[in-house]
Each structure stands twice: as structure tokens, then as C-alpha cells.
Write a structure and sequence with these properties.
The protein has 401 residues and is α+β, with helices and mostly antiparallel strands. 34% of the residues lie in helices and 35% in strands. Helix 2 packs antiparallel against helix 3.
Amino acid sequence: MIIGVVSIVILAAITLGLSRLKPAAPTVEKATVWVDTVKRGLMLRQVRGTGTLVPELIQWIPAASEGRVERILVLPGSRVQADTVLLELSNPELELQARDAELLLKAAEAEYENIRAGLESKKMDQQTDAARVKSDYLEAKLRAEADESLAKDGLVPEITLKISKAKAEELAVRYEIEKKRLLVNEDAMKAQLNVQQTRVDQSGALYRLRRDQLNGLRVTPGIEGVLQQLPVQVGQRVTPGATLAKVAQPEKLKAELKIAETQAKDILIGQTAMIDTRNGEIPGHVIRIDPAVQNGTVMVDVALDGPLPKGARPDLTIDGTIELERLNQVLYVGRPASGQEDSTVTLFRIAPDGVNAHRVKVKLGRSSVNSIEILDGLSEKEKVILSDMSQWDTFDHIRLN
């Protein structure tokens, strides 16, 4: 009985002791986790995005008027000059309208010359009349002066002198009227010519429009570059404004990067960037930030400051890294799988023996592409596990094998 009682007491004590023991630490293969060391020093804040190379200058060539594609002279991929004819259109109605506009312009110009000649003839007649009146006035004035001189000597009757003076005064008034009439007629002539000149200008503008539309049937790019698209076929009918061709300058490219909207808030114009074409890297700087968000990303344009590597061409897929700022003498570590900036997370800190790892709370600060600032919870040179450890959430201690 004594032995039985002692056995029961010992068994109860063992059971109670085992119930108070913590679960055994699980073992994790060290080769399967990502371990990094906490560092202090310069940390580059960067954001990364993917995108494409696009030409800085793209010329979309629309149809100036309706027409039918008669001939295609250049195929996509060919280098073209500003005056290279890419394709030819036909439009008989436009050709007829251009001829009619030319005839209307010639008729308006002929009418202008006819009116101008008639007005010039009329002006000369009026000038002749004015000159005759002036001559009569001067003659009457001289006669009156002569009669006045003779009247003083009693050689001319008083009545003759009065008649001479009256005649001279009458002709003086007529001469002044003729001069005013000549000025008024000149203004009237200018007004009539201006009216006709307006008709000539209208006819000329219509003719130039029709002529430009007719010349536009021979489609040219207007810039030097490479023909990238020609989305029409021979025999196709095109409407005004329809796209006929796309020409770009492949030597002048820029990068368009798609940056996640959560990371784009600190991007500023002028920040430096590095573009990876997978065949070389090109330095650049930010020149534009799209104000709109599309599918969770913000479009950022980067101007390229270095020469293009071989194989760089429009629409080439690229990776880009934009430098936001340089943080001096900060504590940082590689970016953990589940950590976001300005948050608190739990990480496994590896003990000095390199075998045991304990869960600690870590306060994170500003983040970069591959690193993040440590505000609290870790010290310099400590090692932490950055891999996703969600399957060990129930354990505060693990062992590395």
C-alpha cells in the first residue's frame, strides 16, 4: 500500500511538471530562411518599377481629307525624311473643288483690277476738272488784280472791277469744293477696293485650303525618323482625321515607368534614376509624374542622360530605380517579407550561438526597394530572419538546423 501511494504521488508530480513545460522549439532548416545582419550607415531610399522605352517625339499623321489609298510607297521600319512620300490618296471631288477655287480666285482678282482701273479713270477725270477750275480761278484772280490796278488810274469802270472780283471769289469757292470732292472720292475708291480685296482674300484662302488638301493626298511625315505604323491598305477609304501613319525618332527615347501608388508619394521632379535595359544601364532623371492613378500605379517619365546601349529601341521592356533620398547614419536591415514602412512587426532574432532564434517586436521606419529603417527593437550587427515565418506564429522560439 505504501509503495502504491508513493507511486501515485510520483506520477501526479510528473504529470503536473510536464503540464507546465512549454512546447519544444520547432527545428527549421537554416538554408531555407533568409537571414540578414542589421547595419548602420548610409541607406539609399529607392523605388522600383517596370515600364518601356518610348520616343520623346512621336508624329501621328492624320488624313487631312477624305480619300482612297492608291499607293503605299514606304513600309514600317523604314527610315524616312520630313518630305518622304509615304502613301498617295485620290479624291476626284477634291481635285474639282481645287480647280473651282482657283477659277474663283482668278475671277475675283480680275474684278479687282477692273474696279481699280475704273476708279483710277474716274479719279483722273476729277483731277482734270479740279485742274481746270484751278486754272480758271488763277486767271480770274489775275484779271481782278489787273482791273483793280487799272481802276486806280480810272482806266476801268468800277462795275468791271466788281465783276472781276466776284468771278475770282466764285472760282475760289469752286476750287475748294473740287479739292474736297477729290479727297472724298479717294476715300470712296479705297473703300470700294477694300471690299473687292476682301473678296479676293476670301477666294485666295479657299483656294489655298483646297490646294493644301490636294497636296495632302501625298502623305509626308513632316519629321525625320522611322516609320513605325502604317495601319491602312491599298484601296481602303479613309475619312478626315483617320490615322494614316506613325513616325518616331528612335534616337531620342525616354522611359515610362509604372510605380505602385503607395511608393510614388515621395517621387519628385529632378530625382535621379537608373534604367536597366537588360543589356546595359542608363542614368536619367524624373521629368514628369502623371497626376492620375491607373490600376494601382502611377506613370513616371524619366529622361535618359546617357547613351543608349545596343538593342535599345521603342517599346523595349525595362526596369527602373528612382533614388528618393540618402539617409546618413541610420540603422537598417533588408526588407522583411511582411514588413511595411512605419509599422511594427515581429521578427525572429538569432542568438549569438547561431542556433536559437527568439521572436522580438521591431518598429520599422522609412523603406526602400531592398532595405528598411529600424527605429526600435534591434541593434547593430544583430542577425534576424526576414523570410515569411507565418507558419511559426504560435512559437516564440525556434531552432535553426
